[in-house]
Design a protein that fits this description.
This protein is α/β, with parallel strands linked by helices. Helices cover 30% and strands 21% of the residues. It contains 12 helices and 13 strands. The strands form 3 sheets. It has an 8-stranded parallel beta sheet with strand order 4-5-6-7-8-9-10-11. Helix 5 packs parallel to helix 6.
Length: 330
């Protein structure tokens, strides 16, 4: 198998803001794996929070030797260098895309999964309460069935943000704090919020995690606390559920294992994303039926999606029935 890799920039339709940063574009890594003229494609977004970048991913990919058998996943993984989970995820997605094309099956069928998962949330990024309400109201006719609000303004207005959005919509609300609250703030704010769950309210590794899980009136999901399969067991002590992202876990194969481990521990499971094109989102969409909650709107945030093929229907990011991941460059 021949591996090629490059970085690509994705332009957002609007500036995207969370508690840590704002961005107008995202840099992703895209790979091609050629096996006898059949080509599999994959993409992942390196996460700066975990000290990964497009440059570090490309350097890592230069050291990769895939061998000759695209179905020998155990052997391929054993040969990979350590680190760089986003680059691993891009390879993993490309291998599944290649397998699907070689067998004429979509990836979800290769894995024995259902095609359709839960509806995706639409992310309302962090801003003033009125601004967030206006942006929530603007998407009311786009077919979304739940909203995910970015909180963590560190200005005492997070409850007002949720109330402002609630005043303009009846959709279920979820919130993502991106590590910005203290334990005292979380215990103060959460009883005031009518939400489905709260994602990562405390900084990763915060000692208040077990107490918050015990006292919270809403489910706590963790993202920055849960990277890979090795993290799932300890998350049962601090959360009611985990947020799996392919770019954190290393790809589809590891994400499926994480979901199974979480279920065994009685944890809820959600699937998140970064800002990605349809190529990256397609990999998640094919395993979405394993999840309780879905946050796969990364391609919908773009000014133009360079990899169309994921169908947004009745609020659901529906994977293609075409072989592999089912997306092609525009």
């Amino acid at each position: 198998m021949k591996l090629r890799a490059e970085k690509a920039k994705l332009r957002l339709a609007e500036t995207f803001t969370i508690s840590r940063e704002s961005q107008d574009e995202a840099e992703v890594v895209q790979v091609e794996i050629d096996h006898g003229g059949t080509v599999g494609h994959g993409e992942a977004a390196p996460i700066e929070r975990y000290k990964e970048s497009a440059a570090s991913a490309l350097a890592w990919l230069e050291e990769v030797e895939l061998g000759d058998d695209p179905f020998a996943l155990d052997d391929i993984v054993d040969r990979l260098p350590p680190g760089e989970h986003a680059a691993r995820a891009a390879i993993d997605a490309a291998l599944y895309d290649l397998q699907g094309k070689l067998t004429a099956l979509p990836v979800y069928k290769l894995l024995g999964l259902r095609r359709q998962g839960p509806p995706t949330s639409w992310t309302v990024w962090l801003g003033d309460p009125d601004d967030m309400a206006q942006r929530a109201e603007k998407v009311k006719d786009r077919g979304f069935r739940r909203l995910k609000l970015k909180l963590g303004g560190r200005d005492g207005l997070d409850v007002a943000r949720v109330e402002a959005v609630r005043s303009v919509t009846d959709l279920p609300l979820q919130v993502d704090v991106n590590e910005a609250w203290t334990l005292d703030e979380a215990l103060d704010y959460l009883p005031q919020l009518k939400i489905e769950y709260c994602e990562q309210p405390l900084p990763a590794g915060d000692p208040g995690g077990p107490e918050l899980k015990q006292r919270s009136n809403v489910p706590i999901y963790v993202d920055e606390d849960c990277h890979t399969l090795d993290d799932v067991a300890k998350c049962a002590e601090i959360a009611h559920g985990i947020n799996i992202k392919l770019a954190k876990s290393g790809g589809i194969r590891q994400a499926v294992r994480m979901a199974s481990a979480a279920r065994a521990l009685g944890l809820g499971v959600m699937l998140g994303c970064m800002v990605e094109s349809g190529l990256g989102i397609a990999a998640g969409a094919h395993i979405s039926s394993l999840m309780d909650h879905i946050d796969l709107d990364g391609n919908l945030l773009l000014a133009d999606d360079p990899w169309p093929g994921v169908q947004f229907a009745d609020g659901v990011q529906l994977p293609s029935n075409r072989p592999g991941l089912g997306v092609e460059p525009a």
